[in-house]
Amino acid sequence: MKFPFCVLNRVFLRSGWGWTSIFVGSFVFLLSLSVRRSLTLTLRHLSRLAVAGGLWLVFRKLLSLLENATGSCYELLSGAHELSVAANEEGQPLLLLREGETKAVCISSGMLWRGYEVSEDIFLLSFCCLLLAEEMAVFGPYLKLGGISGAPLRILFLFCVLLLSLWLFLLFCLLAYFPQFPNQLLGGALGCLSWRATYQGWYHLGPSWYCPGRPGVGLLTT
């Protein structure tokens, strides 16, 4: 199971927000134009993706600053194996603290960085899953109201469903095979908090110059 996860992680997860933006953005764009053919309304609904992308960039920066502030760089003393065995009953190699190094410089120099890290992967996967579920939930009521749904729109919806399934699969694999508590718990909490603050809070204020509104507002009418 770990091998297919590594392949999917390399292909999809490293650019997870890009995949989510492409499929969700295409679905929202086509659905909005199919109903109203209004560029202003379409851009308003697409602005939710811009908000989500901004949150992702801000949290990535904040989590990187947190890890740099709480971490330290260590150099592996591979040549001192006999001394390390005498100093450590488990025979672990000695680590020399290197002060004043950032994480990027530390890792690029082949040294070890140890700091408090919140899982960005869990944050991204949980947030993208909730975002996909919110944006796709409009399609059912849209069809019940007799909305036109051609092949392109249905195909895009199917791709969004497959992407949601993939993100859930990768999320379960991370939790099952690479457990890192409480780092993953905090990452998931941040993802849920971002969804709660936007889709369950801010967007309920209604469409305005400062709020894009909930999915389907202005579209789901008879």
From TrEMBL:
Pfam families: FIT. Its main location: endoplasmic reticulum. It comes from the Eukaryota. Keywords: Endoplasmic reticulum, Membrane, Transmembrane, Transmembrane helix. InterPro entries: FIT (IPR019388). GO terms for molecular function: coenzyme A diphosphatase activity. GO terms for biological process: lipid droplet organization; lipid storage; phospholipid biosynthetic process. It is a multi-pass membrane protein. The chain crosses the membrane at residues 16-34, 155-178. This is Fat storage-inducing transmembrane protein 1. It comes from Bagarius yarrelli.
